[in-house]
Amino acid sequence: MEHLPKRSSLVHETAATLKEWISTGVLSEMLPGELQLKQRLGIGRDTLRLALKLLTNEGWVAPAAKGLQRRVLAKPPLPPKPADQDRLPVTFLSPHRIEHRVTLLEMEDTQIRLAEQGRSLRFLSPDIFHLKHPERQLERLVQVHPSAAWILYITSGPIQRWFAQQGLPAFLYEWPFPGVNLPYVVSDWETAAFHAGLQLIRHGHRIIGIFEYEESRPGQVAEEQGLQRALATAGGAGRLVVFKDDRSPLSVARALDLAFGLKERPTALVFTRATQVLTCYSWLVSKGIRIPTDVSLVALANDLWYSEFYPPLSYYEPNMKVFSRDIAQRVLELANTGSVTRKSIKIPLEHVPGTTIGPAPHLKG
Questions:
Q1: What's the mean pLDDT in 113-128?
Q2: Cα dihedral angle (299, 304, 310, 313), rounded to 10 degrees?
C-alpha cells in the first residue's frame, strides 16, 4: 500500500513519500511525469516541484532535462532531519514594532501557507537598524532566533549585505541596495512616479516637490528617477525639489513650511509614505491652503483609510492578490529549499484617480 503525504509540512512530506517509494522500489529507474505524480500524490504543481528540487539537491533524482523524465539515482536514504528543523518559523525583520496594516495584508497569503506547513511568521524589530556596523548584533540575532528564512523589510544597506554575505536564506520585501544579490518582490515605484509626473506636467506643473525619509534608500532613488524622467519631457523647464523628514509629524510639517516658504515653491507635492499625507492634509487646512486650487497632491504609497479623504486623493496601489501571492511563493520556496529559483520582480502599481491633481496655480513672483 502506498503511503500518501500529510498536509503538515507538505513539501517535506511529499519529498519523504517520494524517497520511501524510491527506497521500496515503488519508483525505479525513471520518475513518472509531473501530471501523473501530482494526481498520484494529491498535491499541487508548486509543492511537487519544490519536493523534486529537494530530492535533486540530496542526490535522489537527476536534474530535470527538457522533454525528458527525471532519472532515479541509486542512493541509500539519508537520515531524516529532526522534526523541529522542519517547523522553524520564518522571521520578518523590520524596524517597526507594529507592522503597517497594508504590510500585514500583503503578508497574509504567506502566513496562511506557512501555517499549512506547521510554521509561523515571526515579527522582530531589534534596535539595530541605525548601526553602521551591525555584524555582531546580527550574529547573535540569528543564533537566538533560528529561522527557516528571513524576510528583510526597510533594513539598512549593511544589514542587507551581511545576510547576502553569510549565505543565509533571506528574501527582500524592499528594494536591494547596490551590490546586494538577494531575491526580492517590490512595487515598481519608478514607473508609478513617472506616471504621476506626467500627469502633473500635463496640468502645467513645472516645480514638483517629493517628500522622503531622511535616509536615502534604493526605492526613493527609483521614485526620484521616475519623476526626473517625467520632468525631462517638459523640455528642461521642470525641476524636482526633495524634502526630507524623520517620519515624525513635526518633521513633515517643517518640510512643508520649507516648501511653501521658497521663492519659487513647488505647485505639486508627491508623497512616499501614507503618514506624510495625513500630516499634509491637516497642515494645509491650518494654513488655509486649498487642494487642488493652490497645490496638487499625489501619493505613491497607499493605505486603507485613503477612501475617507475629501477631496479624494490621487494615489497608487499594487494589486494586493498578486503582490501577496508572489511574496508567498518565494518565501515558501526559500523556507523549504534554502534558495529561490523564481526571478525577482517589480509589481506594477495601479493608479487610483482622485481630485487632488489640478492646473498649476499662477504664483506671484
A1: 90
A2: 20
Could you tell me the CATH number of the domain that includes residue 76?
Answer: 1.10.10.10
Same domain? For 221 and 285 the reply is yes
Last residue of a domain, one of 80, 99, 132: 80
Which one, of 357, 348, 267, lies nearest residue 313 by Cα? 357
Q: Please answer whether residues 134 and 162 qualify as being in contact, where contact means their C-beta atoms are separated by less than 8 angstroms.
A: yes
Task: Identify the domain containing residue 151 by its residue range.
Answer: 85-187+320-348
Q: Return d(Cα 183, Cα 173) in angstroms, integer.
A: 9
Question: Residues with Cβ < 8 Å from 49, sequence gap 6 or more?
Answer: 34
> Which one, of 163, 180, 237, lies nearest residue 205 by Cα?
237
185-239 tens-digit pLDDT: 999 999 999 999 999 999 999 999 999 999 889 999 999 999 999 999 988 889 9
CB-facing half-sphere around the CA of 240: CA atoms within 13 A: 24
Q: By percentage, how much of the chain surpasses pLDDT 70?
A: 92
* Predicted TM-score (pTM) of this structure: 0.75
Whether 162 and 125 share a structural domain: yes
Query: Is the dihedral angle over the CA atoms 174, 349, 200, 232 positive or is it negative?
Result: positive
